[in-house]
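Dear H.,

Thanks for agreeing to be a second pair of eyes. The structure we're designing against is below in token form, covering all 179 positions.
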């Protein structure tokens, strides 16, 4: 019996990832939440039932991912689990359920008290966010170069209403990627 318990504990330890991976997954979930919120906002009033079903499915899938991630997070950040429990208690007092895109993930930067989170976790999140910032800047540079090329191409080759309209749509799509 003790051997079986020992094997189970070894399997549990092998399923635990490095804290930096946990933080990276949290940042990815945060990005998924942001994209889901943007897609819901872009849906408009007259969405088809298929569009609504797709977003509901994505929302449910994201909620399951967040649930699994919070289980892993509670290993490294017990204070996050305590904070989440406090928030759930307040939800039972008549407040409506939280939308998937509004669920707080309680990453280390959300804590005001530095004693609640180890310094390593804060450093991991800082480095990952810095990497995200560099990636975002590179994406903006790329889109700005693309936009510049599109304007030059439009000025040089677009003639007539059809070509100018098409060029303006492509440029507007590039502008939307910047925003």
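And this is the sequence the design step returned. I haven't edited it by hand at all.
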């Amino acid at each position: 019996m003790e051997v079986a318990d020992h094997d189970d504990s070894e399997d549990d330890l092998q399923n635990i990832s490095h804290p930096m991976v946990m933080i990276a997954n949290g940042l990815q979930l945060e990005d998924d939440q942001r994209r889901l919120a943007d897609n819901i906002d872009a849906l408009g009033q007259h969405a088809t039932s298929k569009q609504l079903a797709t977003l509901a499915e994505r929302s449910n899938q994201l909620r399951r991912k967040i649930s699994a991630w919070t289980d892993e997070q509670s290993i490294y950040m017990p204070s996050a689990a305590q904070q989440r429990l406090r928030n759930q208690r307040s939800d039972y007092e008549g407040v409506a359920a939280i939308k998937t895109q509004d669920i707080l993930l309680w990453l280390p930067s959300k804590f005001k008290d530095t004693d609640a989170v180890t310094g390593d976790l804060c450093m991991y999140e800082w480095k990952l966010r810095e990497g995200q910032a560099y990636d975002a800047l590179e994406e903006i540079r790329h889109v700005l170069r693309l936009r510049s090329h599109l304007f030059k191409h439009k000025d040089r080759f677009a003639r007539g209403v059809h070509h100018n309209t098409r060029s303006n749509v492509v440029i507007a799509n590039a502008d939307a990627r910047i925003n």
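Two observations from my side: The chain has two domains: 1-113, 118-179. The CA atoms of residues 56 and 145 lie 36 Å apart.

Warmly,
E.
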